Amino acid sequence: MRCECDGFCGHCKKLRPEYDQAAAELKAKNIKIGKVNCDAEINNEICEKYEIEGFPTLKIFEEGEFKSDYSGPLESLALVQKMLHVTFFK
Question: Which 3 state secondary structure label does DSSP give 80?
């Protein structure tokens, strides 16, 4: 899972601790998630490639390939459950 956000909007600020908690739980299960700051010029190419239009945007990748957008709750438990489901049923 990858989160694209600008870091300044209220939704991104609310998501940050939930996402960080999910990342810690998933890391213990050897599942990686990451962040991309689409407000940073260096990330323009990746943000344009995946058509990031609003923040936060969560995308699910498997082995480096885009699989789907995530549109579930922005809570750590939901993020962890989704990623466990994705990796269990691959």
Answer: helix
